[in-house]
Amino acid sequence: MYHFIDSLRVNHQVIAISTRGHGKSELGNQPHTYQLKANDAANVLNAVTKDSATVIGFSDGGYTGYMLASLYPSKVKKLVVIGAGERHPGDQPNAITVKQALELDKPFWDQQLALMPDPKRLQELFTRVQEEFNTKLVADEKLFSTIKCPVLVMVGDHDNFITVEHAEYASKFIPKGQLSVIPGAGHAAFLEKWAVAWPTVNYFLKH
């Protein structure tokens, strides 16, 4: 997320949160529900500021953002979600293995493993995240309709996890939802097409 951190820190206070099992955050022993992750994020926000915050979440963090905005509306001023939309058990699964992830971006994972309190639990992290995402996550009209803040739903038109239709569904049922489709981009649209994604996000934050 360094693109966002470096661009926003010029004029904003940036609170960068590593969810459980990421960065220096402990994996813990509880099931990794999105409500738990939203509670964690709310606790961090409450510890750092009394104000509401603009929240940016990618993929798994996007679903945490939806839940945070729903459960803690007073803490979320605006929400930017990338690579997260309508979701039900049985949809396209997250089946990436640790080996595949390491091969995709070895420098990133070397960095993560150096930060993790217990790097031997990396496989356990993958298992917990995938179990919640693949078998339990429901993101539908019932959830989206409870989100009252403005939300930008961003998706790459070649995202292999979330289709444009699933992202559009989310933006449709969020009362103040907006949709941004990044052409020629996959799941990590903001990384692949930063020159396109950043002006869109920046405009949303300012208006």
UniProtKB/TrEMBL annotation:
PANTHER family: AB HYDROLASE SUPERFAMILY PROTEIN YCLE, MONOACYLGLYCEROL LIPASE. The keyword Translocase does not apply. GO terms for molecular function: hydrolase activity. Coiled coil: none annotated. This is Alpha/beta hydrolase. It comes from the Bacteria. Pfam families: Abhydrolase_1.
